[in-house]
Amino acid sequence: ADAQEGRDKARELLSTADGLLMAYGDALAASDWPLDPVAYSQYRLLLGMHRHDCAGSPLRVYMYNSTSDMTRRRLWGGAGMMGAASHMHAFFESGSCTTSNPDEADLFFIPADHGQGYDELLRRCADPEWRKEMLPYLQRRRGADHFFVVAANLPSWPDSEPLRHAVMLTVESYQVNHGIPRWYSPWKDVMIPGYIEPWRIAAMRSNNRPTEERGYTMIFHGHHPGTHGLYAEHNANVRTRILDLFSGVHDCSVGAHVPDFFARMGRSHFCLVPRGSSAWTIHLYESFFFGCIPVILSDHFEMPFQELIHWPSLSIKWPMDDIGPELLTHLRSIPLQRVAEMKRRLEEASCFFDYQSGWQPQASEAPGWSRWGGDAVARSSDCPYLGLGNAEDGAACRAACDAHRACNVVNYYHGGGSSGGCVLRRCVDPARPALTGEAYGWELWSRAPRGSLCSPYHGIMQALRRRTQSTPFS
């Protein structure tokens, strides 16, 4: 529906689904039907159905509408590890930092979905007349105050020439296509994480075992030149080397994909993160949710958010050419206490790689609480039911949650006359509850101790702000 009939139709269908869930949610909970709103919580964000505070950023961003035909498949484009472009577009579309006045804009965003939309953007930008008509503010600073998203595949130099001064938000730092290298520019571009879907994050976290319950020293399971031609074409020989060295070793699990991949990852102390068809790989960001310390084996892979994350305290970077038995010896020699500390730091930083984080609303009148708008509740598996509280008013309901040690979210019915109008819940992450709409008369409040300061959007907005403060003379 999103691709063929437009986002308005997709919103209508999602609202219908929410209405059915509100009407028959209790029956659903008592059944064995495996339907959970967590599985489609990302659609609400992608469809612009939730307003937020742009991760607290003071920046003002103007978003072009002239590339709207390159963003028509947002739900499709927002799925999988290359979905970052669609999520960034949705984030700015529904954020308080977006302005329709170009004169007050600090930055200009050129949206295009990954795949056909991104390819079409590069093709059209080669036409000076199209740029002049459709990107009218590009030449004011030669594009230095413009940005676009590269969710995979860095543009070639001829393709990127019209946008050479613009900021790339890119998952890729270096790659070689057809024998020609491409790379990002550290002085102007911004490294961003790949996208991981919420259901996958939840499954990873459910398999994350305590340090003392982990039996593997290290693990790698994924594509390699022997299973996928793309990895052979791009000489991902470090993956073959891993298999040759560590297959059959008692405390190592290496090879192609396996059915119990999640369980094995959650039982390993260290996750090998070798380069794939290019320098970046989604294996790095998955390791944060498995609690599995990443060992980065990709020399040209630049880490995102280095101003916010102290990478040496939660990961290891090992030269690709030096991979050998000494790597395993080194990992085995690290004291378990230090491994546990690295794992703790890793898990604390995981919110920087979860694109469902950072959509919190603006500050409310209740200190320490966020109000997620009206006519919405949390009732999914990520927010288990605790009991009922005082429904006299919103303040009394929140006070009941404060008095309950486990509570961090309340569904409050402000319509009056409801003895069950204050529902206490315990969300896995109160900064990103899965919402169900069409809950007329209800409102959702959550405690948010760290707020939007730990999210990929916070890292990206911070980096963009630094770019506005240090752009070169043009």
Q: Mind explaining what this structure looks like?
A:
- The strands form 5 sheets. A 6-stranded parallel β-sheet has the order 2-1-3-4-5-8.
- The chain is globular, with a radius of gyration of 23 Å.
- It is built from 17 helices and 20 strands.
- By secondary structure, it is α/β, with parallel strands linked by helices.
- The longest helix has 23 residues, at 7-29.
Summarize the structure.
By secondary structure, the chain is of the alpha/beta class. The protein has 17 helices and 20 strands.
Helices and strands: which structural class? Answer: alpha/beta
Strand count: 20
Spatial order of the strands in the main sheet? Answer: 2-1-3-4-5-8
Q: Radius of gyration from the CA trace?
A: 23 Å
Oligomer, anyone?
single chain
Strand content: 15-25%
What does the largest sheet look like? 6 strands, parallel
Mean pLDDT, as a whole number? Answer: 91
- General shape: globular
Give the end-to-end Cα distance, rounded to a whole number of Å: 44 Å
Task: Tell me the number of helical segments per DSSP (H or I, 4 or more residues long).
Answer: 17
Give the uncertain stretches in residue-range form: none
Q: How helix-rich are the residues, as a percent range?
A: 25-40%
